[in-house]
Amino acid sequence: MASPRTITIVALSVALGLFFVFMGTIKLTPRLSKDAYNEMKRAYKSYVRALPMLKKMGVSSIMLRKSIGTLEVASGIIMTLVPGRPKDVANFVLLLLVLAVLFFHQLVGDPLKRYAHALVFGILLTCRLLIARQPEEPLPEKRTLSVNGEEQPLLSEDAPEKGKIKVS
User: How far is CA 120 from each of CA 43, 46, 110, 125, 156, rounded to the nearest angstrom?
Assistant: First the structure.
């Protein structure tokens, strides 16, 4: 049976992965939602306007939106489908992207309701990464005692023996 830690990591990985595949796809194409796609285009134009340094480096709003969307889709797919260490790398990349998006929202002065989802998913990504980096605790082994050739479970030191009352 899987440990609660494993179940938590898998559930968070799948949920977060699917969310970021969805959000990245919205940034890349209007097929899922034309309104959301247009809103993303408008938002990324304001981000580039607020950071003239990006314009000087030759980064357009289209390039910024498509690169962040592509990273979200790729990392989301890895979080959902690929086992092992690549999940942690994808988790870290998504966490950096969320921090960048939070920075952009703050830069343009968006109200909290516009970026609350980024805060929540940033916290979830952080929790998943922290849980995944914790060492697996070994399960306590069952101790048995051989009595007359039969294996019997050892009584816990806290539980009273049969027929005896524990007195403190």
Answer: 19, 23, 16, 9, 43
- Determine the 3-state secondary structure of 64 from DSSP: helix
The token pair that represents 126 in the structure block: 């952080």
Side-chain half-sphere CA neighbours of 46 within 13 A: 14
Please give the model's pTM, rounded to 2 decimal places: 0.77
Listed as own residue / partner, the contacts of 82-89 with beta carbons closer than 8 Å and 24 or more positions apart are: 87/13, 87/132, 88/129, 88/132, 88/133
pLDDT digits (tens, 9 = 90+) for 17-41: 999 999 999 999 999 999 999 999 9
Q: How many beta carbons lie within 10 A of that of residue 87, not counting itself?
A: 23
Query: Which residues have C-beta within 8 Å of that of residue 90, sequence separation ≥ 6?
Result: 17, 74, 75, 76, 78, 79, 82
